[in-house]
Specification:
This protein has 231 residues and is of the alpha/beta class. The chain has one domain (2-192): Rossmann fold. Helix content is 31%, strand content 18%. It has eight helices and ten strands. The protein has helices at 9-24, 39-50, 78-85, 108-119, 155-160, 173-177, 192-200, 224-227; strands spanning 2-6, 29-32, 60-63, 65-67, 97-98, 124-127, 149-152, 167-170, 181-186, 218-223. Strands 1-10-9-6-2-3-5 form a seven-stranded parallel beta sheet, with helices on both faces. Helix 1 (9-24) crosses helix 2 (39-50). The longest helix is centred in the first third of the chain and has 16 residues, at 9-24. 43% of the residues are buried. The model has no long low-confidence stretch (mean pLDDT 98). Bound molecules: 2-amino-2-deoxy-6-O-phosphono-alpha-D-glucopyranose. Residues 33-37, 64-65, 128, 130, 136-137, 157, 161 line the site of 2-amino-2-deoxy-6-O-phosphono-alpha-D-glucopyranose (GLP). Residues 33-37, 64-65, 128, 130, 136-137, 157, 161 line the site of 2-amino-2-deoxy-6-O-phosphono-alpha-D-glucopyranose.
Length: 231
Amino acid sequence: MEVLVGKGHKEMSEIALQIFLDSFKSSKVLGFATGNTPMLFYEMLIAEFRKGSISFSRKITFNLDEYCGIGKWDKRGYRSYMFDNLFSHVDVNEKNVHIPDSSLGAKAALIYRKEIQKYGPIDFQMLGIGVNGHIGFNEPGSSKDSLTRIVRLSSETIKRNGNVSDKAITMGISEILKSKRIMLMASGADKAEAVAAAIDGKVGNAVPASYLQMHKDAIFVLDEKAAKRLK
Ligand code: GLP
């Protein structure tokens, strides 16, 4: 596992962008993440697109997760997030965009599993990390064999994410680990404990991000604050 540390959030985002761009040409299937952490990264990526150096027109995209119980285009949802922060600003073909559609109800998870099977494995998967070590919405307790499914969120996650929903649909650990290359971004002191547990701690379901220790091409891109508890 590789660990790269930038000075602050901006430098972390620049490092992440460089890694993403290095893999871009050879990656057909891209896995995107949401949250506050990659927002500047997406801004920089749009700037790169506007320079004319990259095109998304032949890329297939997958997102990690979505809330349940909200409308498909609810502003608090991750579909809106992705279009507002990236997809509406680049030349991605909307029919190549895959985001779990919780409005489909119980069958949504199975449909998403099949889409991943059809187009996967994901060549380059981005991740963030929750303060409790979750990746996607794979909360502590998630098995390494888990597939896309509907999950109950922890009270900590519900509160931190602004009480949008107590349930979500998430890509599973098994599907994430099948990605050829994985880049996890984290910044800020509130992530330091989860990051240390993921990188230096025991591999297991108590800290889902620790499963990345089992992956042969996983990179953590951190800022100094998120890295401060590392050994
Ligand atoms: C959310 C998302 C994750 C994201 C994480 C970190 O709950 N489901 O995919 O990586 O929490 O979010 P943030 O970057 O806002 O701290």
